[in-house]
Design goal:
The complex is a heterodimer of chains A (about 210) and B (about 350). With about 210 residues, chain A is of the alpha+beta class. Chain A has seven helices and six strands. Chain A has helices spanning about 20-25, 60-65, 90-95, 130-135, 150, 165-180, 195-200, and strands spanning about 5-10, 35-40, 50-55, 70-75, 80, 160-165. In chain A, about 40% of the residues are buried. The model of chain B is unreliable at about 1-45, about 345-350 and about 355-360 (pLDDT under 50). The chains are: A alpha+beta (about 210), B mainly alpha (about 350).
């Protein structure tokens, strides 16, 4: 079975926000919610770099682990989905998520959170009818044999979506063509003893 | 010279006019120097590896620091205050799932088991002497109303809180998604809306009962004798014994901390950060689990565990024998008020009587 993953090639991302717009349009996401965001570091400086982020559909998803209602589940394709009928808007998934993916419409008094919304990898969610599914979760393009619209519409093909192996192959080919000896994510000539270590850097851990 | 080199040269050349205006004396040498530099860098760019090093921003330690801290950072989400990677999320997850959740179960479950074993082995604390039938007013209507309201809210909060932490392991597989969805959303609703009322009421109750709960020298002795469990002599106790005072001060400290951290979680509309709410959640859970575990002790001692104790909090009156046995110092102060329990409810200021508040009859 495929393991679906997003991968954003930061060297190709031009911060056009096409992915953000495509996502909102494909899924008719409600006002105030933006499932995908583009983050830019050092905007306007020579070292400027941008990356598009949404739910990364983690293998060991922290949201699933902390949810008090156990509303999350993983599809056979490795896509992390959630059941809005079970969600109580407690916000725990937001506390745990490394990527700030869960968002909550503020519908109620005292800032009480509504039901969580996040990227579904354009795979919809649990519902009784396609209409209900679209209403609650947005498009189910996966069921139609299509990939998420954000990646499909990315003008520079910075944002890749698909089976992890395919995505990795495409990215590896780019890295080789660019001539990096260390891979696209590592500095060149910084005296790093092991390129693999630099590539495997885990930002959630202290160095 | 190819196009790239021209662009590179132009890039270097942009600095020329400013330098020329600022330092007219060295304008010509400066121009020559810059031209030389431009060709130098053009030569450098011919080497593919060097070109990449210049053209591609490296993801170095600084980049990752920005990723974590959110500095030099813009985000297209309109109200986002999130860094690119939420580093503390995993810490919070580990604290909650690996420590708070299992050890909370050990604390709460362990307390239930210990009380059960204690009851089976030691049994109920009986009255040593027969009841005299003469009653002493111990809790006024207001005190009892406050106590039982607070107790009800506490029980609802404790049960819903336990459901939020452990319910998914029990009720979701037991009842199925449809029932569980209604159950857990009701749980959250009750917990979030009752919490603030509990906290406000707790402040009133603490203020009302404070006068009975200052720690005295005999309370230390009470604890040394384990509240009468160690040795055969019953230790001295005033209106409130050492155990009751310990419970009071737990509610005054842990209870208020749980109240405050609960407010942080309950009202996410004040722009408090994820990190703040993560810590509030851990503090809230630890404090609440400790209070829940200890409350079992309070409930046991006040009901099954002690003969003659519960009637004080239900009718307001306790038997003279009970008062003499469990609260001898208080009994000495109020024994001349002992008599038949009046049919009419007493006025509040006659109850909770201490020498300072009671008038001699």
């Amino acid at each position: 079975m495929a393991q679906m993953k997003f991968m954003c090639d930061a060297e190709r991302c031009i911060e056009c926000n096409g992915c953000v717009t495509a996502c909102k349009n494909a899924n008719e996401v409600e006002w105030g919610i933006q499932r995908r965001r583009v983050v830019t570091l050092n905007d306007g400086e020579p070292s400027e770099v941008s990356i598009s982020v949404a739910c990364m559909h983690c293998d060991d998803a922290p949201c699933m682990a902390v949810c008090p209602t156990d509303c999350f589940y993983k599809t056979d394709d490795g896509i992390v989905l959630h059941d809005k009928d079970l969600c109580i808007g407690c916000g725990y998934c937001l506390y745990a998520c490394p990527f700030g993916a869960p968002q909550f419409p503020q519908q109620d008094a005292f800032g009480e959170r509504g039901k969580m919304d996040k990227c579904t990898f354009c795979a919809g969610g649990p519902a009784d009818s396609p209409e209900e599914e679209y209403e609650k979760y947005g498009a189910n393009r996966i069921a139609e044999g299509k990939l998420p619209l954000c990646a499909e519409m990315c003008s520079t093909k910075a944002l890749l979506a698909g089976d992890a192996q395919t995505v990795a192959d495409i990215f590896r080919e780019r890295v080789v063509r660019r001539g990096h000896k260390d891979g696209a994510w590592s500095a060149i000539g910084n005296g790093s003893p092991s390129a693999i270590d630099a590539m495997a850097y885990d930002a959630t851990q202290d160095q | 010279m190819n196009m790239r080199d021209v662009l590179s040269w132009l890039g270097q050349g942009f600095r020329l006019p400013r330098l020329a205006i600022a330092l007219p004396g060295i304008a010509l040498p400066g121009l020559l120097l810059l031209v030389a530099l431009a060709f130098g860098s053009a030569a450098l760019a011919a080497d593919p590896n060097a070109e990449i090093a210049v053209a591609v921003p490296a993801a170095d330690a600084d980049t990752w620091r920005q990723v974590k801290d959110g500095e030099s950072f813009i985000d297209t989400r309109h109200d986002s205050t999130y860094s690119l990677i939420n580093q503390s999320g995993e810490t919070w997850r580990q604290w909650r799932n690996k420590w708070v959740s299992p050890f909370g179960l050990v604390a709460v479950g362990g307390m239930l088991v210990m009380i059960t074993i204690f009851y089976l082995i030691v049994g109920r604390s009986q009255l040593d002497e027969p009841r005299t039938g003469r009653k002493l007013l111990r809790w006024s209507v207001l005190s009892r109303a406050l106590h039982w309201t607070l107790a009800t809210l506490f029980l609802i909060l404790a049960l819903t809180g336990l459901n939020i932490l452990y319910g998914k392991f029990v009720f979701k597989p037991l009842f199925g998604d449809a029932v569980w969805a209604a159950m857990i959303s009701g749980t959250k609703f009750l917990h979030n809306y009752i919490g603030p009322f509990f906290g406000i009421l707790l402040i009133f109750v603490l203020a009302k009962f404070l006068k009975h709960n200052w720690i005295k020298r005999h309370d230390i002795e009470w604890f040394k004798q384990g509240g009468g469990m160690i040795g055969d002599k019953h230790p001295d106790a005033g209106f409130a014994n050492g155990g009751e005072k310990a419970w009071f001060w737990m509610l005054a400290t842990a209870g208020m901390v749980v109240f405050a951290s609960g407010l942080v979680l309950d009202f996410p509309n004040f722009d408090q950060s994820r990190d703040t709410m993560q810590w509030a959640n851990i503090i809230h859970a630890v404090g609440a689990l400790i209070l829940t575990a200890v409350s079992f002790g309070h409930i046991y001692i006040g009901t099954l565990g002690t003969e003659g104790a519960l009637e004080g909090m239900t009718t307001g009156y306790v038997d003279e024998t009970w008062a003499k046995q469990h609260h001898n110092l208080w009994y000495e102060e109020v024994k001349d008020q002992a008599g038949e329990a009046p049919a009419a409810q007493p006025h509040d200021d006659q109850a909770d009587s201490t020498p300072s508040s009671s008038s001699p009859s």
